Amino acid sequence: MSTDLKEHFGRLEWVNKEMKTLENEVASYITSQPYEITFRYSNRMFLYSLNPPPATKIYTCKQTQDVPVGIGARSGTLINELRATLDALACTLAIRNNAPNTKSTCFPTARSKENFLNDKQVKQKIKSLSDADKALIASLKPYIGGNDLLYALHSSD
User: Fold this and answer.
1) Residue 94 contacts by C-beta under 8 Å, 6 or more apart in sequence?
2) What is the spatial distance between Cα 98 and Cα 69, in angstroms, rounded to a whole number?
3) Which of 27, 77, 113, 135 keeps 20 to 30 A from 122, CA to CA?
4) For residue 10, what is the enclosing H or E element?
């Protein structure tokens, strides 16, 4: 592993460890059954019908306990750390390409493929990267309809 990537991989390892803690917190919350499920039968009447359809069972789920603050806080922290690691990786790639300044460099995302390919702001974010690194990022399709998970990570941050 390149020495300039050690910090990035370390950050990802930290996120992975914290995800296990988050999963345990969520499992504990769900196990506490913080919801109530009820059902009723529809009471629609069908006049003038010799063979009315059977009543429909309608389920309702109601949350009875608040989600613990720690779940939201940990989720937000992990989302932010993953997004920040992508930005840091883009800066590392710019430095590898001898960029004098990485101030405007960050990992790009867009609302569509067309925006990703044509938007001046997207191009500005990766202008200091090599053509090969730009192509690699483009292959990840960080836009809606391309890699929805990457776009969701960006928009959730």
Assistant:
1) 102, 105, 128, 129
2) 43
3) 77
4) helix 6-31
Q: Is the pLDDT of residue 45 over 70?
A: no
User: Is residue 53 within 8 Å of residue 47, measured between CB atoms?
Assistant: no
How far lies 154's CA from each of 31, 76, 77, in Å?
30, 12, 13
- 38: its two tokens: 């009820």
Of the candidates 17, 144, 15, 19, the residue with the CA atom closest to the CA atom of residue 88 = 15
Q: Which of 102, 80, 67 is nearest to 11 (CA)?
A: 80
Each residue's pLDDT tens digit, 76-90 = 999 999 999 999 999
Residue 8 has pLDDT above 80, yes or no: yes
Q: Which residues of 61-89 are buried (b: 16+ CB within 10 A; e: fewer)?
A: eeeeeeeeeeeeebbeebbeebbebbbbb
pLDDT at res. 55? 75
**Predicted confidence band of residue 54 (pLDDT cuts 50, 70, 90):** confident
Placement of tokens 């590392």 in the chain: 92
